[in-house]
Design goal:
By secondary structure, the chain is α+β, with helices and mostly antiparallel strands. Helix content is about 25%, strand content about 45%. Strands 1, 2, 3, 4, 5, 6, 7 and 8 form an eight-stranded antiparallel beta sheet that branches. The N and C termini lie far apart (about 45 Å).
């Protein structure tokens, strides 16, 4: 069953602005354009320990997400809907990029990299079954993904406005593949510690199988977050400004 995802992200409303002087620019005629953008993107992420509201970028330390809904996976493994709200995601600003391809003629960006650790702290609501075991509860949750390989395919349109050109991104493919996954859902079964501890143990003992069954939902959710951030920034920062 294909997971259904709903995402809302808190980002600042912005007006036309230039990139801050600390953000590196690249020239589209540079023969090493891909390497330049890779380094500029990584350097820009490192600066997002604070928001840059003038260009529509939120802080990534943490990245705050108001809502994230992950639909059920297969009936055999994860047959429950996961609803998260008031989330704080730590670690995305530590991404190390290994590949970047900027294809301006075909209007597409591709990148790949590794995030050492993503820690997701949310209020959750679960109802359904995991590995045929009933699961119900709501409260604080901590999900940790370690050594996460990520890849992003981001096609774009070029939108002319007031003599400038702006990106409009559509993230059609985002993938994430963690080596280690851990779950901690507090207050399962209305606070029954024995049942809650047992379910958390089952989840962690089978974490790779559990996450594999719903990772497309997580990937789609994070992909929509990234798309929203990119469009928040590049509706005001023109291509001419970003890539002189």
């Amino acid at each position: 069953m294909k997971p259904a995802v709903g995402v809302l992200l808190l980002v600042a409303s912005i007006h036309a602005a230039k990139l801050p002087p600390s953000f590196k620019k690249c020239n589209r005629k540079d023969p090493n354009l891909n390497q330049c953008i890779l380094q500029a993107s990584e350097d820009g992420l490192r600066q997002l320990t604070k928001p840059f509201p003038s260009i529509g970028l939120p802080s990534f330390d943490p990245l705050e997400v108001t809502e994230l809904t992950i639909g059920a996976g297969s009936d055999a493994v994860v047959n429950l809907e996961q609803k998260f709200k008031d989330c704080k995601l730590y670690g995305i600003d530590k991404t190390t990029f290994s590949q970047f391809e900027a294809d301006f003629p075909n209007k597409n960006f591709k990148l790949a990299g590794v995030i050492p650790e993503i820690k997701m702290l949310c209020q959750y609501e679960l109802s359904g079954k995991v590995l045929l075991l009933p699961v119900v509860g709501q409260g604080p949750s901590t999900i940790i993904l370690k050594s996460v390989k990520v890849a992003l395919d981001a096609p774009f349109e070029e939108i002319p406005k007031d003599g400038k050109t702006y990106f409009k991104f559509s993230v059609t493919n985002f993938s994430l593949d963690p080596e280690v996954i851990s779950f901690d859902f507090e207050n399962l079964f209305n606070g029954d510690k024995t049942l809650g501890d047992n379910i958390n143990k089952v989840l962690n003992d089978n974490s790779k199988e559990v996450f594999a069954d719903v990772k497309d939902g997580y990937a789609k959710g994070i992909g929509l977050i990234l798309e929203k951030i990119l469009n928040s920034m590049f509706t005001k920062v023109s291509i001419e400004e970003a890539y002189d």
